[in-house]
Amino acid sequence: MKKLKVTIIGYGGMGSFHAKLIQANPEVEVHGIFDISESRQQAGEADGYSAYASLEEALNDACADTILIATPNDVHKEIAVQALEAGKHVICEKPVTLTSEELSEIMHTAEEQGRVFMVHQNRRWDSDFQMVKDLYEKRKIGEIFHIESRVQGANGIPGDWRHLKAHGGGMLLDWGVHLFDQLLYMVDSPLVKVAADLSYVLGDEVDDGFISYLTFENGVTALVEVGTTNYIKLPRWYIKGTKGSAVIEDWDLKGKIVKQSGLEFVVAPKPIKAGQGLTKTMAPPSEESIIKEKFEKVTTQMDPFYTNFAKVVRGESEPIVKNEEVYQLMKIIESIFKAAETGQVVDVREHSYSK
Ligand code: NAD
């Protein structure tokens, strides 16, 4: 089968990572690269790719089928629209754009041109998330009613452009789009409302983290937290179900499940001394009333994105990341900014995309 030829625009950290993903997939190949930085052009050439002298030259090359955008966030829209108008299919890094309006313009252009536009929401295939999704869908700890999803580091905001508003910096646009996308993808009910606080501990003009609280129509609640000044991390996932709790510590996927044994009403917990008082409510459950299980690791296959993308281009498959889903995601991100700015809970029902 003829491989799709992909030209990478923006050969920085993620652009060069895409080159490896493309090389590992039999459906696609790297056709060339373009970066506005001379040193990154040279890095691309050193990796064996030919570098175009300009974006226009890359877009005018009739041999390339697809443009992959891995530049800072603020120029995603203009490059996507130009590439679609030049007749190319487009894959775009997250966050797709800075606003839902910009995404709407891209979707419109893609439709007009009859070209495929897909956003690389790759963390839908992270193993830790797949473990949580499996737990949710198979009801292994009963009905899940609360989810805490956190990523925390102690290295501040990395790089240069991520500190700047004009480039679409900040952690809500950087990590928020992954974590909210995972929840919207997993929870089988519309999101109803959001509350949020952004943090500015580092004194940047953009947020260096945030805490947000989501409520879905089926009653599921979620706390989503991102921090860049956390010298002690909380677990990546903490999940509560009607019959148990589960935790995943970190990217190494170490976790555990503790669930009811069926004897919880027979073997009562013993009161314990807690601080200056006595408590039975907060005592650990009796050993007989619980079952402790290892949280079985899920090893996800290679990111299925490119395989799906090639099939979508050939008209053989539906996209695994739908633009309507990403549009809803961008509306939710806008609502989170609004909730943080106003200190109000924001009703997001009108943005809910029904699956
Ligand atoms: P980076 O700074 O390492 O690389 C960006 C590159 O784009 C730089 O080499 C820069 O010179 C180049 N560039 C800037 N403006 C350009 C333009 N107009 N035309 C061509 N090249 C241009 O940044 P990064 O970490 O690679 O992030 C790039 C994109 O990838 C961002 O949108 C980011 O959010 C996304 N990203 C996604 C993931 C993921 O897991 N999906 C991970 C990291 C980054």
From TrEMBL:
List, for all copies, the residue spans of the domain called GFO/IDH/MocA-like oxidoreductase.
Answer: 129-246
Q: Which domain of life is it from?
A: Bacteria
- The protein depicted here goes by the name Predicted dehydrogenase
Q: Give the record's keywords alphabetically.
A: Oxidoreductase
Sequence ranges assigned to domain Gfo/Idh/MocA-like oxidoreductase N-terminal in this UniProt record: 4-120
Recall the GO molecular function terms of this protein's record: nucleotide binding; oxidoreductase activity
The record's similarity note reads: Belongs to the Gfo/Idh/MocA family.
InterPro entries in alphabetical order: Gfo/Idh/MocA-like_OxRdtase_N, Gfo/Idh/MocA_oxidoreduct, GFO_IDH_MocA-like_dom, NAD(P)-bd_dom_sf
